[in-house]
Amino acid sequence: MRIDLHTHSTASDGTDTPAELVSKAAATGLDVVAITDHDNTAGWDAAVEALPDGLTLVRGMEMSCVGLGEDGLPVPVHLLAYLFDPGDEVFGRERERLRAERIERVRGMAERMRADGLPVDPDAVLASAGPSAGRPHLARALVAAGVVPSVGAAFEELLAPHGPYYVEKADTPLRNAVEMIATAGGVSVLAHARARKRGRVLALREVRDLAEIGLGGLEIAHPDHSDADRDVLSGLAAELGLITTGSSDYHGTNKTIRLGEFTTEPEQFEQIVGKATGVPVINR
Ligand code: AMP
Ligand code: FE
Ligand code: FE
Ligand code: ZN
């Protein structure tokens, strides 16, 4: 069984449509794939529609949250949400709020760039973005305009939090997110919680507090985690009785990682399925 529980499509900042994503997942030999676009479920139906025979689809999302960093200051945190009921009203309203935050934030960053003389058109960037506008869409516009050679370079030089054009957005407090996902029948898994190359990371004591209010699991095997990061997280998961996952965080050509390059153990996947009451997994 090969199981990849963290991937992005054009419904956020991936470059494969949901249909291409499930088709590539099957072609690469995966048995289970989760679609986890940032802050929305817009890709779910197209992924279901295009699901190839023999592939199991997990409908999910990666939610933009804010937690407490090791230094006691707020830090951005990504929380994977699996198999929740998309009709839950409170959770649905929060997704709408995050979507609006994303649009305002990307517009703000694009306007700062334009004011500084960079060839960036805020409306065109937003038009290219689909339902979840993000910095990768700005990065692609900068590459297309010849400002930087690659998406990675755009992040390093222009888009990072300490960079000249960064604009904050108001993400969901992590505790509220864990509770909303649980109420909607979903299972929450902290994504790449030790990914230091993205910046500061969440305090480990926050994970202990979240486990008490219903956090489901920790993503352990991830391209941005070192062996030492995995050891720390595995130890914590064992101590707290949390599910552990491994996934590629595939983004098509926006990143170099391949589908299925990191995977989840079947027993861990079964625990997610067993715990969820929102929507079922789908296979045909
Ligand atoms: P945003 O959601 O707008 O804050 O943008 C964050 C997204 O940018 C993440 O989900 C990643 O997909 C992507 N990202 C972050 N750092 C990099 C990087 N160095 N190279 C490519 N993509 C990145
Ligand atoms: Fe992303
Ligand atoms: Fe993430
Ligand atoms: Zn992701």
TrEMBL record:
Q: Where is the Polymerase/histidinol phosphatase N-terminal domain?
A: 3-67
> Do you know which Pfam families this protein is assigned to?
PHP
Molecular function (Gene Ontology), one example:
5'-3' DNA exonuclease activity
Q: SUPFAM superfamilies annotated for this entry? A: PHP domain-like
The record, for InterPro entries, names: PHP_dom (IPR004013), PHP_domain (IPR052018), Pol/His_phosphatase_N (IPR003141), Pol/histidinol_Pase-like (IPR016195)
Highest taxon above the source species: Bacteria
* Name listed for the protein in its UniProt record: PHP domain-containing protein
